[in-house]
Amino acid sequence: MSYFTYKESRLSAENIDLADIVKSIGTPFYCYSLSSLQDKYKALSSSYTNDNLLICYSIKANSNQSIIKCFSDLGSGADVVSIGELKRALKANIPNKKIVFSGVGKTTEEINYALEKDILMFNVESLDELKHLSVLAKNQGIKAPTAIRINPNIAAGGNAKISTGKTEDKFGISWEDAIDIYNIADSLEGIEIKGIDIHIGSQINDLDPFSKSFECILDIIKELESRNFNIDIIDIGGGIGIDYKDEGKNLNIDEYFELVQEKLGDLGKTIIIEPGRYLTAESGVLVTEIIYVKKESNKNFVIVDAGMNDFIRPTLYGAEHKILPVIENTRSNSLEPYDIVGPICETGDLFFKNLALDNPKKGDLLALLSVGAYGSVLSSNYNSRPTISEVLVKDHQSELIRDKIEIDEIVKRDKIPDWL
Ligand code: LLP
Predict the structure, then answer these.
(1) Total-model pTM
(2) CA of 202, closest atom in ligand 1
(3) Domains delineated in the chain
(4) Probe residue for ligand 1, chosen from 99, 274, 283, 368 as the CB with the greatest number of ligand atoms within 8 Å
């Protein structure tokens, strides 16, 4: 169910009129529904009936601490990829022993900090990283709990930019070298082998690549166990796709978990999943105001006050997000196509091509849907624009969960040296 619905022709988030939020904080802003976030988490956790599942929310999808806290309150762990994400996770009450650290480029500072915080597991992505982790752990007089991320050479995901499981992608260690690297890990003083990890891509709406990747790690686990390696944790990554265009083609969660159970469920191991998009995408909208309407001889444009710096998915991935008027109107009862564009000086600053609207006007409000994942986290200050606000709604309450970062604050950070 969606928590963004029309009530008397006005789009609301739960029981809050989005246009009322505009009156108090202006536009553009991100708005999230707490009930929607909670429902998503509960849908996921209740679809898997075995009790060996640990959900580690992939913080990169939306790292606002209120969003993280929403999931930690429901028992979630976290998948982090930087010291910043780790700090946010801990501040939002994720227990240290429910945190896994992924990513190809963990720095010395990041590893040391995570070792001090005694996290659940490091998902290691290269031999160099493995050796470095061992040295740093040894220096602290401890062993680093480690999984090796396997690259299974399987194509998956919404598009090439978010596919991670092919050998030409930078992620993980080729499945062919898995046994060798576990042997090396075993010989390193600062490493304690804990598990195995895989993540093949994002926005995956087909079970087949998951099935192949589970089979790939199952073979490796069997081989490792025949050599007396201890694998307690199987981290199968994130990647569950959602239905951006209401096409009914998204992954069926029950079928996904049936597959997990069938392939990996009865091995007596903890299964970790790292969902990001599934938990957050559909729980967020971006509200923006029409600045100008421009009608050219062969094209109509609606120019809005949000830009590709605020929300880059359409520009970067050609992603299509539904756009709805915040207040429905039937001004002329005739729809015309408009390109919805932002104010940034790039042709790619385009949210939607040929959106059918009824006589849109300057000052009208629009909402981009399903922007709760990889929305605000990917924003920038390009064109010297501010970082926009984020609002959380629960029933009749709404609260700012991130203040707008005003442009003056950003401008004053530049320094002009005396010698210039
Ligand atoms: N685990 C690892 C190791 C990851 O790299 C990712 C996402 C996830 C979990 C979470 O994947 P999810 O469940 O959200 O699919 N910016 C792109 C998506 C990039 C995904 C990066 N890694 C987008 O907007 O589509």
Answers:
(1) 0.97
(2) 15
(3) 4-32+281-412 (2.40.37.10), 103-273 (3.20.20.10)
(4) 274
